[in-house]
């Protein structure tokens, strides 16, 4: 037999070979055939199930509807295929139920209708489906209640879904967000980040992207987030949407910024510190080396800061530094860096200058910020600043070199007199010595005879006779030549050295007067004025030492005049007045030096009651003649008059200046027009030579009360 399908056992074998269960029922619903798979699925043996109604395989709750179905089905038989047949439940012999898929296939033999039911065990598939549901459920839970703000984006960066944490983070509801373009809540400056990241992801350059961007909270706050954006793909690798999980790092950022700010800024003033300045300077120098940019560093040093600190204490000193920093900050350009270099020193880095004049203008601007006094702790404090400037416009300079050179230029500025700026030049470097070394040398100079007092004649402007002289200290340094008092006195003032030096000046000056006593000019005993520094004024020994020096020399105390500056008003006023009273009691007069430049307040003038005021040379020989200046000069002289004080003009350099002073009625004067300060020997000769030279009237001087 060639045709296997005609063999009587063919049907049996075929049925047994099928992996699904086969059950054939007749038109009354009685089971007439089952294959082995059907018995193993149901748990019935062939013998038990054959000739049973199909109902035994149907759970009781479905039986009613099944009967109706079956008869309708037999009437209008249609083939139903596996997979499209829907889900059935099969009742097994032991009463258990299993999910199955059933395909029904009717056929007719000899006018009798039959139905083949092919039964496929659907349990694994359904279990898989169920577990898929589970996964989705779990995922949804994980997404929605995750503490991390999360969302899904479509290809156009529109929100598909967001979780609560995200909504909370940017203060918008889910309804507001879904469908919204991310640009609607992204910080405008960060829109580019979103786009760039998107491009990198879509081009396949990266498989996921991590980046930081800023969102805008509904209330306007900026929220900084770290984002991890990854595409979700289907089995074929196509991107379905993007998953963004994020972390709010706003506070963390703020803290990091604060920490790095602390590491790079001066805690007192908030200005850049040395580390930051060094960094900026290094970059500026690198740019200069590459492109030839012109840059400058200005080193600023407050001239009178130490006195304030010593007198008022550090709290006031600190407050003053803060005010100074604030004023300097106001004139600092955006492209420049201002740094507190330490103590009372500041550094200003100016970049991309057009010309050296620009650096000069900058320095002028800095100097001008100090013209107004600072109001600290209810007191007005007048400060001055000296500036050293270094320029560069090419390669070959290091940061240390720049700062060293700025220091040398600063020293030069102080040397020339305070409150000015000086550019560094190469030949300065040769002269420069460290300030520390200079202090050491000054100590030695006092004992080796390098320090000497010189005397500048003071002239009665009406009679033109020499009525006294001011003692000014000179230091002829073995190596550096003349070191100006503005430099070495300031150095000495930084330590107790000033007390020794001050006593030296007093003793020498008193000695000098003893000479003149015997030579007496026009019968009036001349006087000497000696400069006292603030620190000496503080010295509890001052009055007794002066008393002692006077008594041992036998000098008439009224011939000694002590010059103090208005900075003594920095001291506790009660103490100041006490010292002044004791000096006056000795018979020694007080002159207020540099009047008009300092802390000048008229109330101090009446409080201190000096016998003499010395008008500062900036009023006498001003850099620029002005009506205002003339008026001031006149005002100071008449003020002195009205308070019965003697007025001495300092720094008379020309006949014209002398004439003007005479016109306004100034009593006395000194200046290069008459004579510079000179040694005692030179002074003797000078007095001899000029005896009567300026003589005129018989104006009588009374220098003490
Ligand atoms: P000062 O007390 O105001 O002295 C006047 C300064 O003006 C002196 O400078 C003097 O040489 C200078 N001068 C005099 N006439 C003219 C002039 O016509 N034109 C110009 N441009 N300047 C003139 P010097 O000697 O350099 O002293 C500077 C400052 O150093 C003094 O200012 C004083 O504050 C301080 N100093 C000098 N000697 C001593 C001292 O023995 N003890 C203390 N504590 N300070 C001193
Ligand atoms: Mg003086
Ligand atoms: Mg003076």
Descriptive account of the structure:
By secondary structure, this protein is an alpha+beta fold. It folds into 4 domains: 4-124, Beta-Lactamase, CATH 3.30.450.20; 146-254, 2-Layer Sandwich (Beta-Lactamase), CATH 3.30.450.20; 265-399, Reverse transcriptase/Diguanylate cyclase domain (Alpha-Beta Plaits), CATH 3.30.70.270; 453-693, EAL domain (TIM Barrel, Alpha-Beta Barrel). It contains 26 helices and 26 strands. The strands form 5 sheets. It has an 8-stranded mixed barrel with strand order 18-19-21-22-23-24-25-26, surrounded by 5 helices. It has a 5-stranded antiparallel beta sheet with strand order 2-1-5-4-3. It has a 5-stranded antiparallel beta sheet with strand order 7-6-10-9-8, sandwiched between helices. Strand 25, helix 25 (655-664) and strand 26 form a beta-alpha-beta unit. Helix 18 (497-519) runs parallel beside helix 20 (542-553). Residues 470, 531, 563, 593 line the site of one magnesium ion (MG).
Tell me, what is the CATH class of the largest domain?
Alpha Beta
Quick one: how many beta strands?
26
- Here the CATH topology of the largest domain equals TIM Barrel
Structural class: alpha+beta
Euclidean distance between termini CA atoms: 160 Å
CATH homologous superfamily identity of the largest domain: EAL domain
CATH architecture annotation name of the largest domain = Alpha-Beta Barrel
> Radius of gyration over alpha carbons?
52 Å
Query: What small molecules does this complex bind?
Result: ligand C2E, magnesium ion
Q: How do the strands line up in the largest sheet?
A: 18-19-21-22-23-24-25-26
